[in-house]
Design goal:
This protein is an alpha+beta fold and 202 residues long. The protein has four helices and nine strands. It has a domain of 107 residues: 2-Layer Sandwich (Alpha-Beta Plaits). The strands form three sheets. Strands 4-5-1-6 form a four-stranded antiparallel β-sheet, with helices on both faces. It has a three-stranded antiparallel β-sheet with strand order 7-8-9, covered by helices on one side. The protein has a two-stranded antiparallel ribbon with strand order 2-3. A hairpin with a 2-residue loop joins β4 and β5. The N and C termini lie far apart (55 Å). Belongs to the beta type-B retroviral polymerase family. HERV class-II K(HML-2) pol subfamily. Its EC number is 3.1.26.4. This is ribonuclease H. Pfam families: RVT_1.
Length: 202
């Protein structure tokens, strides 16, 4: 039962759910062209999205399509790529899930306390985590699973953007692997592309 019968926010029925089924496993959803939002409506749209998030109507998705992300990055002058140290292992497993990860070695039985690599659904969970961490920083930071990139047009912006992203990552209790990071470069390799100088190449 809803907490109240009358209200200005929608309820959520437990009686049915809607299920979307593709005709085949290889069929991809149709990617519609995004409409340009007039500048005067950007703040209105942002508030509407925030309201829908708060009421549970929508949730963060897996992020942008890779080609769209690469196109955005190609325009940047300064780029940094960040690697989270053994990223999946930084996500705790629920107590009820741990026995499912039990493995045997000569010294005995062990189970994971954190999310192991290769676990079904792990990439989606990690993507959701990074999307939460970078929420609100989408104009200068993005991630595809555990590959984080920070991109800026000027040096001053890049220092500010990097500082913000570092603070977000630290606040989330996550650790960056310094050996796998590339900081403040004019050209980086990201998702198989060489990006920088206003262009990108395979």
């Amino acid at each position: 039962m809803p907490k109240k019968l009358f209200g200005t926010k929608p309820g959520c029925t437990p009686l049915i759910q809607h299920d979307i089924r593709l005709r085949s496993q290889t069929q991809m959803p149709i990617r519609d062209t995004s409409s340009r939002v007039p500048a005067k409506l950007v703040s209105v749209l942002k508030q509407e999205v925030e309201d829908m998030l708060d009421t549970g109507i929508i949730e963060p998705s897996r992020g942008e399509w890779v080609d769209e992300l690469i196109e955005r990055l190609g325009k940047a002058t300064f780029l940094s790529t960040l690697d989270l140290c053994k990223g999946y292992w930084q996500v705790p497993l629920t107590e009820s899930s741990r026995d499912f990860t039990t493995f045997r070695v000569p010294s005995g039985l062990y189970r994971f306390r954190t999310m192991p690599f290769g676990l079904h659904g792990a990439p989606a969970t990690f993507q959701r985590l990074v999307d939460i961490v970078l929420r609100g920083a989408d104009t200068y930071a993005a991630a595809y699973i555990d590959d984080i990139v920070v991109f800026s047009e000027t040096w001053e912006e890049h220092v500010r953007h990097l500082t913000d992203v570092f603070q977000r990552i630290q606040a989330a209790g996550l650790v960056i692997n310094p050996k796998k990071c590339h900081i403040a470069k004019t050209e980086v390799e990201y998702l198989g592309y060489v990006i920088g100088g206003g262009s990108f190449d395979l």
